[in-house]
């Protein structure tokens, strides 16, 4: 895939989201709407390949939004970057089904490593950033994996688009270095 036309994503899992797992919450719906709007804008700027890390929460929202974008623009591709082969094994059955449904629809499935270890999520995040020119993030400013990925993206000088989880209805803020 062409790095110049690739955008990856980072965002929080349900435990860190103000609405938790309640996807019908107006704030979650606003975030999903903002993702759709930002993805359409990225498409208009020439981005065609999108990478999701496939974690629960925002990663899955993003992957589903990319699939919706692909329905409008068939030249869009979705890559699912799995940190390890059994990523969803311990999830609830409904979450496993959702994850598998997205995998079944993606264009590229990348398994970063076969077995889980403490560093596999960071390796997956670096894999995505290293293959992208832009990163879209749903972030609330707290420490954790999303912040780690954004810091790595800043060091790699990616274009960064931030969706503020405290104001999910607002357009993304474009960070420049």
Summarize the topology.
Elements lengths: L5 E6 L14 H19 L4 E4 L5 H15 L4 E6 L10 H13 L2 E4 L8 H11 L3 E6 L5 H11 L3 E6 L8 E3 L2
Parallel strand pairs: 1-2, 1-5, 2-3, 3-4, 5-6
Antiparallel strand pairs: 6-7
Describe the structure.
By secondary structure, this protein is α/β, with parallel strands linked by helices. The model has no long low-confidence stretch (mean pLDDT 96). A 7-stranded mixed sheet has the order 4-3-2-1-5-6-7, sandwiched between helices. Helices cover 39% and strands 20% of the residues. The chain is globular and about 35 Å long. The protein contains 5 helices and 7 strands. The protein starts with 5 loop residues before the first strand and ends with a strand.
Q: What Rg, in angstroms, do the CA atoms define?
A: 15 Å
The termini sit apart by 25 Å
Kindly state the mean pLDDT as a whole number?
A: 96
Sheet with most strands: strand arrangement: 4-3-2-1-5-6-7
Number of individual domains: 1
In the predicted model, the low-confidence regions spanning at least 5 consecutive residues are: none
Please give the largest β-sheet: 7 strands, mixed
What is the number of E strands? 7
How many helical stretches?
A: 5
Oligomer: single chain
CATH class value: Alpha Beta
Mass-distribution shape? globular
Run of helices and strands: EHEHEHEHEHEE
Strand content: 15-25%
Name given to the CATH architecture: 3-Layer(aba) Sandwich
By helix and strand content, what is the structural category? alpha/beta
């Amino acid at each position: 895939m062409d790095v110049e036309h690739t955008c990856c994503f980072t965002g929080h899992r349900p435990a860190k989201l103000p609405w938790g797992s309640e996807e019908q919450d107006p704030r979650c719906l606003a975030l999903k709407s903002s993702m759709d709007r930002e993805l359409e804008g990225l498409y208009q700027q020439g981005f065609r390949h999108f990478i999701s890390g496939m974690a629960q929460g925002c990663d899955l929202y993003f992957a589903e939004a990319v699939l919706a974008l692909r329905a409008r623009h068939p030249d869009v591709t979705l890559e699912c970057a799995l940190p390890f082969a059994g990523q969803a094994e311990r999830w609830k059955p409904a979450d496993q089904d959702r994850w598998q449904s997205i995998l079944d629809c993606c264009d590229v499935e990348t398994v970063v490593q076969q077995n889980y270890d403490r560093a596999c999520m960071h390796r997956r995040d670096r894999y995505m950033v290293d293959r992208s020119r832009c990163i879209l993030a749903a972030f609330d400013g707290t420490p954790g994996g999303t912040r780690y990925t954004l810091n790595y993206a800043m060091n790699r000088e990616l274009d960064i688009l931030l969706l503020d989880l405290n104001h999910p209805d607002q357009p993304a803020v474009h960070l420049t270095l």
